[in-house]
Amino acid sequence: MSARRRAVAVATHLKGKHGAKKARGPESDSDSDHTADVLAIVNEAPTATAKRANDVEHILNRRVDKRQFVVDPARNDVLNREKQIDGLLVKVEERIFKSRKYANAFALVLFLLLYLIMLFNQNDVLTAYDIESSAQNQISISLPKTFFLENKDDFWNWMTDRVVNKVFTDPACGNGVCEPGEGKGFGRFGCAADCGRFLEVTPITIDLVPFLNASRDINPAWSWEEVPQRITPDYRWNIFSEAVNDYIFEEAQPAGKGKVVVEVPDGKLSLRLYQTTKVSEAIDADTIKDYLRISQPTLPLRVATNDFAFGDPREVIAASALLMKQLQDYCWSIDPGMPPQQSIDCALVDPSLQDYCYSLQGGGDGAAFLLNCLVHPLPDSMFKAMQSYGLKGKITMPNGTKDQIELASVDMCGLLPNGTQGITNPSNKAAFLAARTPCIGRRSGDFDGGVDIFEQLDELDGDAPLTLNQQQQHRTQGMGSGVEAMGSDLEGRRSGRRAAGYLEPCTKHLDCSMLVEDLVTGGKGQFCDATGTCNTCPQCNWDVEDSVDRACPLNECPDSGLFPSCVDAGKLTPNINSPKTCKDAYDFEIWRFNAPGSAVSVGDPPSEIVRWVTPFNRLVGPITVSTTRVQKGSCTEVQNRDVQNYTLGQCVQADVLDGTPMGKDPTYIATSPIYNGRLDVERYYKRSERYNRTITRLTTEGYKVLEEPTTPYGFFPHQYDLATEGEKPADLIMEDYRDHFKCYFDGRGSAAQANAQLQYLKDSNFINPETSTVTVEMITYNAQINMFMMLAYSFLWKPGGTIEWDYNSNTVFMDLYTAKDPTGSRFGLEILVILALVFNICLELHDMYSAVRKMQLSTYFAHYGNWFDWFHFGFMSAAWYMWFTHHANTAAFEMADSYPVNTDVGALSRMFATNATHEYAFLAFQNEVRARSDDLATYQALAGICVVCFVMRVLKVMDFQPRLGLVTRTVTAALPDLLHFLFLFMIVFVGYAICANLLFGHQFDKFYSLPMSVLYLLFITFSMDKTTFYDQMSHAAPPWIFHLWLWTFTIVGYLVLFNIFLAILVDSYFAMKEEVEKEFHRGVPEEIEDFVRHKWNSLTKKKDVFMPDEKVKEVLLLHKAGLPSTASVRKSVLDTINHKEVIILPGGIEIDRKWMWRLTHVFVDPLLVAGKQAADKGGGGGGEKGGGGGGGEHGALDR
């Protein structure tokens, strides 16, 4: 009873006594004798009065126990018997209570053991550790332990050493075993040693030669084979087979090395031609002008985007000019020590030249070549050079006889369709004359010198054509004496003629004979050339350079002269702006073993090669490397105008992903190791899939600024469809990856291809300033233990400049029962655990129902242990739901035999092109494995929480035992102080964490965020190992503030607060231990032994030999039921007290019956006593009313 309630009771009692006194009259006892005592009590402090009442109650109880109260002898036996029964009941009920608690504890521990056994059967932790640790030890080991990369080179080195080179290894050909990845062999394909030969092949003969080699067949009288070439286009060729989707030769073959015989399978094939050296960089525009007369402004720029492109217009012109220059240089600088050349039969030479011919032959075989240089007109050599680009030859196959079937025919290419026939074909001269153009300088726009006779003649040519004499007169007048001859070869020709002296001297055209026949054309006639000697008419072409009077004689040589000084390249090459002036591919087909047009199978199609990520853990599907990039934008947070100049386009929008194509395909970048100049970009990329450049091009309408596609993009987002050049269909897009760039290292590819793909990523700007994340994912399967592993490495590029990496590995079983529980024992355990859970929930619901019936529901929820119970049941139910959901999902799990994500695993270009359908299937499979592993991880997390809840419940049920419950009682007793301490501790701790974040977070990664600061301060508090933080923190802040922070935290946070925390726990522990030791308690082993013995006896012994505690309690209750009621016993006690008038307390203090009742039942409130005194003075009316109330109070108290 509280002090307030006692005071109310005293006031009511006094008021009632006062009224009762008036009612009873003078015979009733008076309270006036005790007024002084009451007033003394009133003046006491309430705490002193309460202490006095407690002391009296203690003394009274002690006197009763010592039989100082005299009880009525008639009632004595009853009371003694009742006390004995009550004592026995207390003992029996205590035994029953402990028995039930031990039974609950044993049942809960058994429940926990069953649950743990079931968990370890469900989760093979040791095996999972072996698999996941193998990945960490072998894949992650080369990554920095700090979880921060220094730069992107660390990522590439890790990818090279620990991913590509480790996973992709090719089977060894020649070990006698035909392994996946090997097949029947022919040529460089397959492995004939292990898998046998592929017999369905046809030998074909390729005979291709460049112009110099072909010149013997073109002009047997004058072969150019021996013309030295320091620089050549280096033409090469290869055969592409659609059956193997690759080139027959690993490297392109050089031309002019003789016939090549190779075996090819059936199907469509293509001869591909390449120019492996850019000659346009070796010869300038002036040289081209000198040797081909092509005006500089009309020269096209190089259009091809790779070095190996065949047929680029500028390369065709440059190669022709280079050959012409090399020929002329060789003609006029023949070294006598050169190897023997082909000879000329001087008997067949014109009689006027025979003496000179024999003199040259006497000088050596090399002089014969010079003779050919002299007798062949310059346009003849120039026209041939203009058509000297490329290769000439054919591809044939046997037809079963001596004859060959021609599959493809290749001819020379160039500027003149019939150029190889030289001047013997009039169409060449006509085409050259038709290409005339004014000689305008490239930059200045001035004339180079020389007069274009064609233009002058065209101006004079009206309705009536000019006669030959009129043309000759105009041409002679138009050639001023100041016009100088052009070409370095002209001086050589003049010197050679003078030294030989084989021609007659002349001063005019009439001095020369008209009967001399030209050795090349067979035409007769001579003219007086610019050297003052007679020469055959075909030698007079450029009037100003060749004729003595700077005009070729039309009367003596009707078809001579009129060659323009400059020609327009665009008129010689109609498709001058095309990157392919010459044909670079010749298609043909062979169908000997298969029906025409059918699919040809060369061995087995590419299949999944067994790739081991770690021993016994096989790669499933490709390795996925994906990246996200953020958009660049303006730095809106920068307000300073001067600083803004340095921020243009440098800030990124972290939350906005950029899904536009990016990077460049490095197979078309000359600086890349995987650059392949043989590739034709148009075969792999559409125009919209390439970067555009603005360039000035020469067109038929003059120079124009054009937009031209150049290098192709390197990467396209997941949403991009290669076929439609737009977005994929919705059912083939994973929305989570819409703007992600995904690249796949297909397991079907070779190690060389995987390394080429990795080089592709390095050189294509895959990681760039806009990169946000890079993720490397792989799925493995261990057949030994039937377990999948989802392994993912993430690399985060933070705005501050750091590259943080992390990994996640989860393992999962897909056969939860059929493979992992063939006997059904684990399933039986699961059923037992579920039944135990249901039983526990039912018991707890019963306890709640009992609390509701007793109107004690608030008391039920006030006990923390009940909350632990319900939390446990909730988490355990959630865990079972997750388990059965996981089982249902794994039972429906499906996977394909192979995931051929990449369109072509051996692609030379566009190596990461994907098949949209197969990519979606693989991503769905990847998400499925990830989801199942995440489900299992979630179940394991819930199971771990359940185990913790089990522990808490065990501690709760052990609380009944004084020694076992010492921990819980200690924490419970210390909880108020701990809560107050934790409040103060968090204020201090969080304050120091914030300070550390501000002072050291900019350098020390342990304090870079507030949560990390709080966590690391806990580590410092528990370890105080200065080697882990002292150097970093001392450099991150000024020394004085660092030491101030360190020492104040050490004193306040470590020495003071930490020790106060320990002191609170220790103090509560000793208090609880002292309380336990005040009374005798049996030890836990003895109680358990007694409990077990009791249960054993209850089960094994007969009822007439052993009586259980429950039966004893029942008997005692029956005996107690026959005793007087508690009210009767109380009345007997009060009556007994009446026999003893006073109680003598220590110190001689006497207490009579009335004050004994007051001190033991009520508490005197001074305010109520004062009220009583006022009532006494006020008269009897109020007292009577109080008497009625007092009687009621006495009745209530008596009851």
Could you characterize what this model shows?
It is a single chain. This protein is of the alpha+beta class and 1199 residues long. Helix content is 46%, strand content 14%. The chain has 36 helices and 26 strands. Strand 17 (690-699) and strand 18 form a beta hairpin. Helix 10 runs antiparallel to helix 13 (378-386). The longest helix has 50 residues, at 73-122. The chain is elongated, with a radius of gyration of 56 Å. The two termini are 16 Å apart.
Name the average pLDDT: 78
- The helix count comes to 36
**Unreliable spans:** 1-33, 66-72, 335-344, 358-365, 442-466, 474-502, 1180-1199
The strand count comes to 26
Distance between the termini: 16 Å
Structural class, from helix and strand content? Answer: alpha+beta
Main sheet properties:
8 strands, antiparallel
Gyration radius from CA atoms, angstroms = 56 Å
**What amount of the residues lies in strands?**
5-15%
What general form does the structure show? elongated
Quaternary class:
single chain
Share of helix, binned? 40-55%
List keywords for this structure.
1199 residues; alpha+beta; eight-stranded antiparallel sheet; 46% helix; 14% strand; disordered N terminus; disordered C terminus
Please render the helix and strand layout as text.
Layout: H1 3-24, H2 35-43, H3 46-65, H4 73-122, H5 125-138, E1 148-149, H6 152-167, H7 192-195, E2 201-210, H8 211-218, E3 235-241, E4 246-247, E5 253-254, E6 260-265, E7 267-275, H9 285-292, H10 313-331, H11 351-362, H12 366-375, H13 378-386, E8 391-398, E9 404-410, H14 426-434, H15 453-460, H16 468-478, H17 488-500, E10 526-528, E11 534-536, H18 543-546, H19 569-572, E12 585-590, E13 612-614, E14 617-633, H20 641-644, E15 651-657, E16 662-664, H21 681-684, E17 690-699, E18 702-715, E19 720-721, E20 726-727, E21 741-745, H22 751-763, E22 771-782, E23 787-797, E24 803-812, H23 825-853, H24 857-862, H25 864-891, H26 916-957, H27 966-1000, H28 1010-1023, H29 1030-1036, H30 1039-1078, H31 1084-1100, H32 1109-1121, H33 1126-1139, E25 1142-1145, E26 1149-1152, H34 1153-1161, H35 1166-1178, H36 1180-1198
Antiparallel strand pairs: 1-24, 2-6, 2-8, 3-4, 3-5, 3-7, 7-12, 8-9, 10-11, 13-14, 14-15, 14-21, 14-22, 16-18, 17-18, 19-20, 22-23, 23-24, 25-26
